[in-house]
Amino acid sequence: MKLALAQIDVRLGDIEGICSRIGDQAVLASSQGAQLLCCPTPMFCGMQPTSLIEYPNYLHDLLRCLSALAERLEDADISCLVPAIVPIGPSPFLETFLVREGRVVPLRSLIGVRHGNLDVGTWESPVFDIDGARVAVVLDLERDLPQLPRGCDVAVYLPLGGFNAQNEQTSAVAAVADGYFSEAAARAGVWLAYMAPVGAYDDVVYTGGSFVMDEAGRVVAASPCFEEDLLVQEVVRGSVVPAIDTHELPSFQREEWVWEALRLHLRDTVEANGYPRVAMALEGDLPSSLLAVLAVDAVGSRNVIGVAFERSEVFTPQQEAAECERMERVRQLAANLGIRLVERAQGDVSRWMDRDVPARDAGRLRAGIDALYLSDVAHELDACIVTALTKTDAAIAPDACVRAGAPFALVAPFGDVYLTYLEFLARYRSCTSAAIPAGLISLASIRQSMDRILFDAADVAGRDPIARERIAQIFARLEPAQIDGALEAHVDRNQTLEDIPLSAISPKAVSLLMLMTRRGEQRRRSLPMTPFVSERSFNERVWPATLGWSDLGRGGEDPLSLEGFVAAEQERLEELGEEHGERVRGEILGLLGDLLGLSPDQQQELMSEEGQRRMRESAMRFESQLRQMMESAGEDEMGGAGHAAPPSGGAVHHYPFFSQN
After folding, report:
1. Cys-Cys link to 266, which of 92, 298, 548, 620 (CB 3.0-4.6 A)?
2. Which residues of 634-655 are buried (b: 16+ CB within 10 A; e: fewer)?
């Protein structure tokens, strides 16, 4: 049996276009002898369908187009495995449709109906026959592969999640060289077909790299990463076929994969929204310069417009020299990339607001005016706006991002990347071409950008200059990597204040970072789309917008847990039970003492531990004597009746109460 993996990049939700593309790929695969075409998972509604699947006509259009695809391929000797998310009641359900012989078969729903429990908890892997081979559909390698029924020849794995820079497995074939997937396939004894999606689907991005692995865990065929491909491979069980050497497989390099994932997402997002070009503000710093390079890689230099703003707040020779140097870096970058540069001068911002006195908040006004300039240029040249804000900006200074016009932007490519990581991305990209001025790829440049972010965050914290000065003092001795490390631990890994390494050096700084992150929740919801490339993005980490709680630590106390409170309550109930039992025993013994005419002293002695011990010994002697009497009575009765005596110990079974109590 030959199978084909259609690693195609389509527009999210274009149901008719997607089904047409699947049909074209099926015809092409059939011409190469394939009997089964496998399609990637997120094509129709992505992996976060929200309320889309609740809309009745969405499911109707999906099934209608799949039926049309089945009619188109009815006479072709090929079947298609098409995954799609559909509603099961109020919940989303990942269905796997098998399009074959003019029919559309919902495999997972069919299994649920046969078992009488059609719900989102149906996890049994569908298994079907293609040209004499048994094919299983796998959604979770660790869970599903060991549970496959015997006789399966090939498992088609449909990954659900997108690219995550902290999880190498999401890079598909690039993870094989580091030992992923091979052991699982060899242990299950089946061929593994990894159907990797490629492209941007809303805020999730996939890097491609589909592959086919034999039952020995060797890659026998692979698709390239970050581009479309149709992979056709014959599955031959029990035979040794040529394999790709490990050193010939792509190797996962984090900076390369993050860069290419961001490039792919920016290209697909701009194209999906129908814009021919992009525009961005060039500030002469590392974030905006790196964004310009990314945009050129994504859409080409002819389609990138840089907008530079000359500063009017220049009062000293030093400031004038710094401003000239900044503008020279911007012009040099534009020349290196071959992009169009539009320069604008603001003038006195107080005049813009028609103020009688000079503006004290000139920085805020300048940011807003820059945003208007950029928006006007983008509108004039029919371009969408992209912004260079980072995850560090979004964490502690989202207000400044909003003031600078971030809501006007279509996408923020670095919105899930911390500021300090941009230096590593820039060094990787500079190995290809030295477009970014060398002075920007340095720790000093990162520190300058971090100072700007902290200044904006402190400015939002309050207009009190004393408060701003205290905030500046708290962060003065910290390195940018320490700040980003604390934010990453808090946001991405949900660590508490005590668990963050920086808290041992400056607990006040960690508390302040957490406070700023919490206070920016509402503003972050106004920021543009961000591609997910981290363990947890801000779109996944959503807290109540009006939350008044911040993590201020435990003050040296041990962490409390729900299990501890449950154990304490159980212990309390056991103690109450013992006390209740003792009280009942005392009441019974008192009643017996009154019936037997015992004096209070005798009753007290009877209720003491020594008295209780003597009573237990007496009860045991009484029970033994009573047992012997009953055994003797049973033997006499059975012997007198002319019956043989039972085996030793047998007579006692005629008296179950005494034999068991």
Report:
1. 298
2. beeebeeeeeeeeeeeebbeee
Residue 149 has pLDDT above 60, yes or no: yes
- List beta partners, residue 334: none
Question: Tell me: the pLDDT tens digits for 318-332?
Answer: 888 988 999 999 999
What's the residue count for the chain? Answer: 661
- Helix, coil or strand: residue 133: strand
pLDDT classification of 120: cutoffs 50, 70, 90: low
AA letter at 476: A
- Specify the 3-state DSSP secondary structure of 407: helix
Q: What is the mean pLDDT of residues 252-266?
A: 96
Give pLDDT tens digits for 621-658.
766 777 777 777 766 655 554 444 444 444 444 444 44
Average of per-residue pLDDT across 396-420? 94
Span 27-37, pLDDT tens digits: 999 999 999 99
Which strand ranges, in their side-by-side order, compose the sheet holding 211-213? 127-130, 133-138, 154-157, 191-194, 211-213, 219-222
Q: Which residue in this structure is represented by tokens 């703003």?
A: 309
Q: Give the Å distances, CA to CA, from 149 to 127, 137, 157, 176.
A: 9, 12, 16, 25
**How far is residue 53's CA from residue 42's CA, in Å, rounded to a whole number?**
13
- Cα angle 419, 172, 207 (rounded to 5 degrees) comes to 50
User: Which residues partner with 137 through β-bridges?
Assistant: 156
Cβ atoms < 10 Å from Cβ of 121? 10
Burial of residue 61, with CB atoms counted within 10 A of its CB: 0-12 exposed, 13-18 middle, 19 or more buried: middle
In the numeric block, the tokens 């026959």 are attached to: 129
| DSSP 8-state secondary structure symbol assigned to residue 167 | B
User: What residues are paired with 412 via a beta bridge?
Assistant: none
Reported pTM = 0.84
**DSSP output for 408-471:** G-SB-TTTTS-TTHHHHHHHHHHTT---S-GGGSSHHHHHHHHHHHHHHHHHHH-S-HHHHHHH
Q: What distance in Å separates the CA atoms of residue 401 and residue 290, rounded to the nearest whole number?
A: 18
Alpha-carbon distance of 152 to 517, in angstroms, equals 50
Q: CB-based burial of residue 547 (10 Å sphere; 0-12 exposed, 13-18 middle, 19+ buried)?
A: exposed
Q: Which amino acid is at 260?
A: E
Distance CA 159, CA 11 (A): 19
Residue the block writes with tokens 């997937």: 181
The whole-number pLDDT of residue 182 equals 93
User: Which backbone phi and psi does 213 adopt, to 5 degrees?
Assistant: -125, 135
Q: What is the 8-class DSSP label of residue 378?
A: H
| Nearest-angstrom CA–CA distance, 592 and 65 | 87
Token digits of residue 247: 């050193």
Percent of the chain's residues with pLDDT above 70: 86
Specify the pLDDT at position 659. 46
Question: Tokens in use for 499?
Answer: 């668990």
pLDDT band at 362 (very low <50, low <70, confident <90, very high): low
The residues, ordered by sequence, that sit 6+ positions from 430 with a Cβ below 8 Å of its Cβ are 436, 441
- Rounded CA separation 11/19 (Å): 11
pLDDT for residue 602 = 67
190-204, 208-222, 584-598: the lowest-pLDDT one: 584-598
pLDDT of residue 311: 80
Would you call 286 helix, strand, or coil by DSSP?
Answer: helix
